[in-house]
């Protein structure tokens, strides 16, 4: 009998030394007991509860400033045609300014952005998109003709930071021939976003669809 009792004691000792594996049915009770071993005031308990609450709460995404049905977003080809119109407008502005300066001998033509002519032409290109998008409610001349406009999912009106990143930095990057592939994602995703749209959380919508929807709702 003494041998059996010794074996039982050794087994119990081994169990105590072994780490707990799997769910512990007494876990909640152990937590309560730990509070008893380390006495806490009600204020301290409430403080810990508030601190730990963040680990159990589900995070709700903030509502978007603009969120449209997927068929409201302007497709790749209508945006491409609007872009081509914008290029014609930029070309006309460049010829009226730099072309005159070139004919007068003030500037020498150069494709390099490091030259005065190339750098000024780049400024005209970027300023056209930045200023019109900001001050004309997301519309360049091409977008006005085709009835589309840039919108932000986070802002009611496009901020300077959004416009500078989308129409400045991203437009400059997408100006290079190989990097123009950054426009292609607008063909495949539901919100018709290209590379610049992904960076600024923007897209382009068709104004006539919004007008038609508003008229139907108000009628």
From TrEMBL:
Signal peptide: none annotated. Coiled coil: none annotated. It is a multi-pass membrane protein. It comes from the Bacteria. The keyword Transmembrane applies. The keyword Cytoplasm does not apply. Residues 1-27 are annotated as: Disordered. Keywords: Cell membrane, Membrane, Transmembrane, Transmembrane helix. The chain crosses the membrane at residues 71-93, 113-133. Residues 1-16 have a biased composition (Basic and acidic residues). It is found in: Cell membrane. GO terms for cellular component: plasma membrane. Residues 73-200 form the RDD domain. InterPro entries: Pra-immunoreactive, RDD. This is RDD family protein. It comes from Enterococcus faecium (Streptococcus faecium).
């Amino acid at each position: 009998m003494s041998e059996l009792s010794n074996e039982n004691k050794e087994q119990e000792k081994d169990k105590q030394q072994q780490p707990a594996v799997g769910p512990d049915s007494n876990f909640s009770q152990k937590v309560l007991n730990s509070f008893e071993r380390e006495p806490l005031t009600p204020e301290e308990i409430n403080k810990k509860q508030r601190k730990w609450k963040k680990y159990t709460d589900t995070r709700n995404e903030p509502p978007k400033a603009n969120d449209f049905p997927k068929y409201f977003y302007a497709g790749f080809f209508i945006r491409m045609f609007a872009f081509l119109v914008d290029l014609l407008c930029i070309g006309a502005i460049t010829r009226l300014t730099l072309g005159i300066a070139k004919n007068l001998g003030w500037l020498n033509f150069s494709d390099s952005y490091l030259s005065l002519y190339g750098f000024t032409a780049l400024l005209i290109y970027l300023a056209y998109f930045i200023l019109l998008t900001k001050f004309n409610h997301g519309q360049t001349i091409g977008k006005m003709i085709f009835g589309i406009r840039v919108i932000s999912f986070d802002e009611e009106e496009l901020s300077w930071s959004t416009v500078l990143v989308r129409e400045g930095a991203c437009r400059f990057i997408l100006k290079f021939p190989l990097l123009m592939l950054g426009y292609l994602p607008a063909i495949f995703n539901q919100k018709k976003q290209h590379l610049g749209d992904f960076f600024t959380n923007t897209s382009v919508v068709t104004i006539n669809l919004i007008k038609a929807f508003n008229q139907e709702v108000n009628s």
